[in-house]
Amino acid sequence: MGLHPHSASCRAREILDRVGDKWSLMVIAMLGERTRRFTELKRDIDGISQRMLTVTLRGLERDGIVTRTVYPVMPPRVEYSLTPMGATLMEAANTFVAWAESHIDAIDAARAEYDSRAAELEALKKTS
Amino acid sequence: MGLHPHSASCRAREILDRVGDKWSLMVIAMLGERTRRFTELKRDIDGISQRMLTVTLRGLERDGIVTRTVYPVMPPRVEYSLTPMGATLMEAANTFVAWAESHIDAIDAARAEYDSRAAELEALKKTS
DNA sequence: CGGGATCCCGTAGGATACTG
DNA sequence: CAGTATCCTACGGGATCCCG
């Protein structure tokens, strides 16, 4: 199985759409360490808004990746954690993150070279 | 290494932003099979526009994931293929795709249960 | 054939205010 | 504390036309 064109895109894309958005992986990473409360996540995930944290958590909960536990007290206390499936997703994501970390330098280099080459071509156009 | 919150998101997110968009993985999958020409990709990737194919290929080329080879003939002939780094990226992506394929049923089930439960709660509100 | 240049729209997602 | 409800904008991405 794997990334052959017609299975890869069709269903796997849905999953990528869920987990590949701006915040999901970050939330999963935080919950991979330990169970956390809403405000705790909001504080520790730099730049996320209440709205997006809620939306992200709801989506992950709906897909069975995180659990939401409400304690009926005042003030409210809600805890989030990874499901077993969520934990396996995190491991799968780790493979990708590892790839990214070990190739980030090569990518930066490729970008720099591409950009300088593009700038060169731009300079040539003015000469002609 | 891996998906711990503060290394994972910061740089790995950039990579995810490149490869997690609507078309990149699909293009990589196609080029993973073999070298292809622009029009060939456009024909085989269902629903992609010229513009997005161009934009996607440029981005992947810039990051050193695909190579672009121009043959100076009329009519023009341009071939795209994966770089060695692109090939390793495809393998890393395969891990994720494999996860998605083996959990898609569980996710569908989780969604169905979540939705029916939500509908139930909705019904209760009308009673009260 | 393989694009570049424009125009245009839907939506992801930020800011802010309110609530049980 | 843990959300929900609105409003609003930036931008991803489609459609279309043109060009070497």
From TrEMBL, chains A, B:
The record's PROSITE patterns line, in alphabetical order, gives:
HTH_HXLR (PS51118)
Q: Which Pfam families match?
A: HxlR
From the UniProt record, which GO molecular function terms apply? DNA binding
Keyword Transferase among UniProt keywords: no
Q: What keywords sit in the KW lines?
A: DNA-binding, Transcription, Transcription regulation
Q: HTH hxlR-type domain: which residues?
A: 10-108
**Any keyword DNA-binding?**
yes
Q: Can you say what this protein is called? A: Transcriptional regulator
- Which organism is the protein's source? Actinomadura spongiicola
The uppermost taxa in this organism's lineage are: Bacteria, Bacillati, Actinomycetota, Actinomycetes, Streptosporangiales
